[in-house]
Amino acid sequence: MEFSIALLKGDGIGPEIVDSAVAVLEKTAAKFGHKFSFTPYLIGGCAIDETGIPLPPETIEGCLASDSVLLGAVGGPKWDDQPGNNRPEKALLGIRSALGLFTNLRPAKLYPALRSASPLKDEIIGSGFDIMIVRELTGGIYFGDRGYREGKYGQEAYDTEAYSITEIERIGRVAFETAMKRSKRVCSIDKANVLESSRLWRRTMHSLSEEYPEVEYSDMFVDNAAMQLVRDPGQFDVIVTSNMFGDILSDEASQITGSIGMLASASLGDTARGMYEPIHGSAPDIAGQNKANPIATILSGAMMLRYSFGLSAEADAIESAVDRVLDAGYRTADILGSTDTAPLTCTEMTEKIIEVL
Ligand code: IPM
Ligand code: MG
Description:
The protein is α/β, with parallel strands linked by helices and 357 residues long. The protein has helices spanning 14-32, 45-51, 57-64, 88-98, 122-125, 165-180, 196-209, 222-231, 243-257, 295-307, 312-327, 346-356; strands spanning 2-10, 35-40, 68-73, 103-109, 130-136, 146-151, 154-159, 185-190, 216-221, 238-241, 264-268, 274-278.
């Protein structure tokens, strides 16, 4: 089969890790008899440098004309002084919204080979955990009304959290459908003891849960959820939550796996086109040094094959190659244990994975 992929390499380590994922995708295409074509577009700080804005219209058009999108990372200290609406991060929100990507899937799974890298005690990890965070991505406070106004103490700034039943149901369905393919548990996370938008969220999730009698449904306040993730992560299967709570909880969930350099993500909408990216950032401190861990981006490429192209055997092949390379003891610097030997570079790790594929 033939597929076109837009590459948004972005800033910092973005170009290195995207190149690694492309090399792995090319090897996969050759092995299974497919043809992938790759077209790069500018996004983030590099786009500001070249065009003055973080998300040029050609980038949006190029992504819309592609079968799917692979993103590295955006941002860095160089662009920290940009005004709020011209920051590299703004491009991320813009592209998510332009492509209608209202679902963000963020798996946080503990790799047995990396168990010792988790900051959690062994007895808390127990038999391990495999959580799928389903984060709403194009609504809530990220996109609500904002601005400045005169308040009780003079000028104040405000941002608004708003969710419609339609938006809640549509992300809720993704969570329940996802759970049906996993261990059939959904925990919806909100702040319904305080926020009106969360009360609507909770009511809507409750009525939706009645359509999925096989799924064990629960809900939890976000403060408790933040605690439960480090107290007993094994209790979670699918978590569904709002844009901002999902942003925060997914960082926490990734940290307890001990390997943020390993975690992939998929952003999906109503069409097969998705955007796939590692959940870590642009790591400007190690950019250009060939030290980055390419695995999260390589696994994002695998998610693309699975979710956008329906190529599950191919995705399995990449994931199992990563597992085997880790089981054989190969590590990049970020996941190196105290007893391991010298770390592999980004390109060496990529070559190992390609070799095993
Ligand atoms: C993420 C990031 C982004 C977000 C930022 C960079 C805008 O933190 O993808 O989690 O908040 O969504
Ligand atoms: Mg985040």
